Amino acid sequence: MNLLDAWPPGAAGAALAIPLTWAVTALATPRQLGRAGVVAAALAVAVCLGQALAPGAAASGVKLDVVACAMLALVATLGAIVARFATTYLQGDPGLARHLRWLGLTLAAVTTLVVADNLAVMAVAWTATSLALHQLLTFHRDRPAALVAAHKKFLVSRLADASLLGCLALVHREVGSFDLDQIAAWAGTHPGLTPAMHAAAVLLVVAVALRAAQLPFHGWLTQVMEAPTPVSALLHAGIVNIGGYVLIRVAPWVGAADIARLLLVGVGLASVVVAALVMTTRVSAKVTLAWSTCAQMGFLLVQCGLGLWHLALLHLVAHSLYKAHAFLRAGSTVAGWRQRSVTQRAPARRGRSVALVVGVGAVVGAVAACAVVDAAATEALAIAVMAALVSLSMVPLLDHGDASARSAVVAGARASVVALLYVGAHAAAARLVPAPAAAPHLLAWALVGAAFVGLFAVKATLLAQPRGRLAQALYPWLAAGCYLDARFTRLLFRWWPPRLPRPRAPVSPFAVTAEARS
What's phi and psi for 59, nearest 5 deg? Predict the structure, then answer.
């Protein structure tokens, strides 16, 4: 028998062995969990290489394509790194074995979702991931702040489960199956979709928005910092991105639902604008990263709403790698910043001319890059807009000079390079992951352009005039997160308040026991 002919069942077995490897670590020791992570990562690499040698191989219940292999390698690799980090981070803690047990079960649920070829199985695995993650978020059970944030996340996730259940019921009534390929085939033969499938797509978007911590359901994501650092890295680098992966999997169906796409763009843009402004008022490194995750998830939903599915996958992978590195190095980053703040002088403040030069550089780079891309006029314009937005969002990371004209030109050149790299990554992703055809929605693109131009203008004004009228008017609202989470929490806890441990009564140092008196 040819080796390639025997590959499909072998690929399915190897893919399913990865969640099984994580699951058996519930009975393993901390050292064995680290070894299990290496085994899972090696299996993921083997599956990806085998799929590259035999493209198109599949098995019942398992979907292995470029998207699944990329996510499988990402989850297995990050899982191995986080597991190894956790064994060192919590060394000597009496709860280490319990933490690693739930970490393994969480990774098992995530990898099951990644390789599943059934929407119902993906929903069950998504719920299992949430329940296992809840045990990690409540690792310190004597901290009220951790319990309140975890309780809020638990309730929001149950609302998402209810929305997913309604989505599954409507899909089964219309399609008669939860198989992803059959759903895609049904959407291809019904380009207009039925009202029930439109409603199912909207329910799926609601579930994704709830799980992706979009406004006003974002509070739990910015308040779970009481959990250990490995949990924060796993949450922000992998689990919160699941919603984007699910949308990519059902792209042929959601891409044909105009109402769902507009909802993705609206919810995502609101989260991007508010979170990007609020994070500038935070002084904690981990809380700032949490608000950044909220904004990044909003940008991911915007890309899905615009039909840029391959860019959404590229963004998902890049964000996972960046956030895992950022959280695992948060402590050393703060220490390095303190040392630089003592040994170096603060850079001079910049004016509006610097921001203008950087903006022009970003736009010029995007247009120049799209001029050499073989694409239709509408697609080239869309790529230029996205490249300009990405390069503008990275200006604070690219600009490290003083307020001179030379520094402004250098920052503009760097923004142009970022735009060129983004267009190149777009071309590579488009070849690897062909996106399903989706008609461009002019209203959605107009909203995206207006929102990002307004965001850049506000941030440039705040940077140029940190004590101006606009800063004085916005800062109280931004410092309070626009009061969105406070109002949502008050409403949510009125329905189901959290159970907190009773505070221990203080013991007086002058108390004398009966035995001492006798």
Answer: -145, 165
Residues 6+ apart with CB under 8 A from 180: 63, 117, 118, 119, 249, 250
Q: Quick one: which of 277, 284, 302 has its CA closest to 484? A: 277
Q: Quick count: other Cβ atoms within 10 Å of Cβ 429?
A: 21
Residue 179, φ and ψ in degrees, nearest 5:
-65, 130
The β-bridge partners of 118 are: 179
Of the ranges 82-86, 183-187, 308-312, the best mean pLDDT one: 183-187
Residue 267 in tokens = 């919810």
**CA 85, 133, 169, 198 torsion: positive or negative?**
negative
Q: What is the pLDDT of residues 136-170, one digit of tens each?
A: 888 887 778 778 888 888 889 999 999 999 999 99
Is the entire prediction scored with pTM above 0.85? no
DSSP-derived secondary structure letter, 54: S
End-to-end alpha-carbon separation of the chain, Å? 89
Answer for the pair 198, 257: CB distance below 8 angstroms, yes or no: yes
CB atoms within 10 A of CB 397: 9
Give tens-digit pLDDT for 364-382.
555 555 555 555 555 566 6
Whole-Å CA distances, 322 to 16, 158, 296, 394 = 27, 29, 11, 13
Q: Are 123 and 44 in contact (CB under 8 A)?
A: no
**H-run or E-run covering 146:** helix 144-175
Between vectors from CA 74 to CA 111 and to CA 4, what angle results, nearest 5°?
Answer: 75
